[in-house]
Amino acid sequence: MALPAPLLTCTPAPPPGVVGSLSHSRDLAVAALGRASDHRALGLDIELDTPLDPGLWDAIATPPERAAWPDPAGHAPKRLFSVKESAFKAWFLAGGGRILEFEEVAVQFDEAGPDRASWRVVRQPAPAVPIIGRWCRWGGHHWSFARVAAL
Fold first, then answer.
1. Pairwise CA distance, residues 78 & 80, whole Å
2. What is the pLDDT of residue 84?
3. Which pLDDT value is given to residue 140?
4. Which of 4, 31, 64, 77 has the fewest Cβ atoms within 10 Å of its own Cβ atom?
5. What angle do CA 151, 82, 9 make, to 5 degrees?
6. What is the Cα gyration radius of the chain?
């Protein structure tokens, strides 16, 4: 039996004129939807508000990101992980067409507080698209949302 393309790629298949992204944790499943006339792609990620394995920091963060957070304690590693996951989804849906590795994308936080931040992707492979987003920590989760504007 052949599976429909969305099931093979694990990407959402919203109706025509709509873009979207899905994410889930052990406790929660969420979706973000928008008009394709406003957004080329969306990316959404949620992660449980638990510490990330410290051994993963070097795999997740690029050298500039590690320099910005020389002591990645507390929520910084999970924040960066979640933000990159949402950026990966937006990039893929905007035409990237493959799964990215963490070192391929660099993120810069423009406004950051302990529980919320705005951010943008400052390095990515082709096709380069402007990806911006927001992150917050709320309800026992890290929430990251990425957006690529419509053409």
1. 5
2. 94
3. 92
4. 4
5. 60
6. 15
